[in-house]
Amino acid sequence: MTHDDRDKQMAELARRHLVKGDPTGWFEELYRAADGDAARVPWADLAPHPALADFVARHEVAVRRALVIGCGLGDDAEALAAAGADVTAFDISTSCIAWCRRRFPDTRVHYEALDLVMAADSWPEGFATVVEIYTVQSLPLALRETAFEAVAALVAPGGRLLVVCRGRDDDPPTSGDDPTFRLPGPPWAVSHDELGGLERHGLTELRFADYEDDAGVRRFVAEYARP
């Protein structure tokens, strides 16, 4: 299967679930269909994201409580644990979490299957370090504000948040209709205005980079803090 074929299958799977009003159900179906073959999971690099490595190099994470949102196959969570953090990681897919536990049978990471919007209820005290890489960009635009509110709620006072996502220009004013179906995806790139939802829910933007990666894909890497 080529990368293009894989991405087309992902898009078809996601949109089929969107049409029936189940915007997140496609994650479990994708992981279950992959059946242990990471090459069939479009975002699975089987290595920590370089932005996370940079974040860990600049911040003290050892012995601090850390959370990885939408952890995928666990590489970012394991990198944080290797740096000495007390790591919890979650994903909405139960098959994904089972896969993480098989990959890392001796892990110190606490893996859980959980929906992002429910996570703040599970950990109301928040975390000193929160990592969100490629999760919100996989949700339709109509859910962005709710998703970023949920992400912000997981950052404890004095804590830091790292966000990595595909980037796009801010949207022109619209009638309020969800433009998800007019955009290619998933993933559906995130605008800087949408990232502003994090500030609207109590965080402060500390760093923001807008760049093209080696494949010519526009990326945002941003860092936030809760005072």
Could you characterize what this model shows?
There is one protein chain. The chain is globular, with a radius of gyration of 17 Å. Strands 1, 2, 3, 4, 5, 6, 7 and 8 form an eight-stranded mixed beta sheet that branches. The chain contains eight helices and eight strands, in the order αααβαβαβαβαββαββ. It has a single domain, classed as Vaccinia Virus protein VP39 (Rossmann fold, 3-Layer(aba) Sandwich). It has helices at 3-19, 25-34, 50-58, 75-82, 94-103, 116-122, 144-153, 192-200, and strands spanning 65-69, 86-91, 110-113, 127-133, 155-168, 190-191, 204-212, 218-225.
Helix and strand string, N-terminal first?
Answer: HHHEHEHEHEHEEHEE
**Average pLDDT metric:** 92
Briefly, what CATH class? Alpha Beta
Please tell me the CATH architecture by its name.
3-Layer(aba) Sandwich
Fraction of helical residues: 25-40%
What global shape is seen? globular
Q: Considering the protein shown, what is the CATH homologous superfamily?
A: Vaccinia Virus protein VP39
Could you name the CATH topology? Answer: Rossmann fold
> Structural class of the helix and strand makeup?
alpha/beta
For the secondary structure, the number of strands is 8
Percent range for β-strand residues: 15-25%
Give the count of helical stretches.
Answer: 8
Distance between the termini: 47 Å
* Parts with pLDDT < 50 across at least 5 consecutive residues: none
Radius of gyration, in Å, reads: 17 Å
The number of domains: 1
Q: What kind of sheet is the major sheet?
A: 8 strands, mixed
